[in-house]
Amino acid sequence: MTHHLPSPIIDVDELRAMLAERQPVTVLDIRKAEDRAEWAIPGSMHVDAYEALKAGDPDALAAAAIPMDAPVVTICGAGKVSITAMEQLRHRGYDARSLAGGMKAWSLAWNSADVPVLGSAATVIQVRRTGKGCLSYLIGNDGQAVVIDAALAPEVYQDLATQHGWTISHVVDTHVHADHLSRSRLLAEQTGATLHVPEQDRVMYPFTPVRDGDILGVGSSRIVALRTPGHTLESTCYFLDGEVLFTGDTLFLAGVGRPDLEASPEQARARARLLHASLMRLTALPPGTIILPGHTSEPAPFDHRPITATLTDVISRVGMLGLSEEAFLDAILARIPPTPPNHARIVALNEAGEMPDGDPTDLEAGANRCAVS
Ligand SMILES: [Fe+2]
Q1: Alpha helix segments (H runs only) across the chain
Q2: Residue 134 alpha carbon to ligand 1 centre in Å
């Protein structure tokens, strides 16, 4: 009987499943330190061996204390140099594999965490596109489900819904995104769900407009739309059963949304003023409100722990929330981070409701930069 060796190439889905199931594995990142600083796989080990591997140094990894007792998955930017690393390790007796497509492909990796909700009959699942830190949500109740800010392939949400016995009936966006391509339109098409987008005149495909105070039902649960302009003019938060607030890019756990994308300096100032008023509206909600933002600034770990905080905690962390309007304007406009790569192109595609030809991760490369903190 011959022993069947596992393929030395592993794809994103296999690796993300291993991590989600907490299987023993050493994820070995061999990129240069500056590339790793941009984003990395949570819990990965780093050996700055890229140049040595490329130069053909057979001892590129010899000095690193890589554990022998678990499989090793080697990672680089695009999945080529990591093959050399994998071959060197296999030569030394390691059960080593190389991640196909490298960190570029990892852009589509995801994990999930259940969000404990006490005052609602709904189940809330945070679906994290880990590398980019995009947070989307699946809210299920009585056999129905709503998806907020789909950022991954429709199958991810459909499979999770099926596992829980839910049918996706509504797909909702908080705003027109600038850092990733929305998959909401695709998801709505594939599931037959109703597509809801905050009312605006930017989006060119058919949608059901969401206005302030609109209510969406999921089984016995109610999701109320709160129009919170600022990050974008149409930005809208969704309040589930008076307990859970999905804030999109308006309010994060340690920062607020940036008001400057696709805006002149004057428009950014006007939006910052709107944002201040919107944030004052949100901070007046019950202190125990569970905040679920649209992004996190760090890659989401495979720990099944939701990225969330109470409104009280967020207010204590985000000093800008305590400022007067004028002080808030000065503070936020002085702290605008670099603009995300390709944002104009991503916005144009999101307004058209289209995906690019070819690989969407070409456009979506890099970490998220939607927050000011
Ligand atoms: Fe955004």
Answers
A1: 12-20, 33-38, 50-54, 81-91, 102-106, 154-163, 184-191, 265-283, 311-317, 325-334, 343-352
A2: 10
Dihedral sign, Cα of residue 303, residue 307, residue 309, residue 314: positive
Distance 201 CA to ligand 1 centre (A): 17
CA of 179 to the centre of ligand 1 (A): 6
- DSSP E strands: which ranges in 88-143? 96-99, 110-115, 123-129, 134-141
* pLDDT, one tens digit for every residue, the chain (373 residues): 444 455 799 999 999 999 999 999 999 999 999 999 988 999 999 999 999 999 999 999 999 999 999 999 999 999 999 999 999 999 999 999 999 999 999 999 999 999 999 888 999 999 999 988 999 999 999 999 999 999 999 999 999 999 999 999 999 999 999 999 999 999 999 999 999 999 999 999 999 999 999 999 999 999 999 999 999 999 999 999 999 999 999 999 999 999 999 899 999 999 999 999 999 999 999 999 999 999 998 899 999 999 999 999 999 999 999 999 999 999 999 999 888 778 999 999 999 999 998 888 888 876 666 778 7
Q: In the chain, how long is the greatest CA-to-CA distance?
A: 76
Ligand 1 centroid from CA 370, angstroms: 6
Cα of 261 vs centre of ligand 1, distance in Å, is 9
Q: With b meaning 16 or more CB within 10 Å and e meaning fewer, what string describes 257-273?
A: bbbbbbbeeeebebbbb
* DSSP type of residue 214: -
**Distance from the alpha carbon of residue 369 to the mean position of ligand 1, in angstroms:** 9
**Type of residue found at 234:** E
Residue 153's CB is within 10 A of a number of other CB atoms, namely: 16
Specify the DSSP class assigned to residue 251: B
CA 169 – ligand 1 centroid, Å = 24
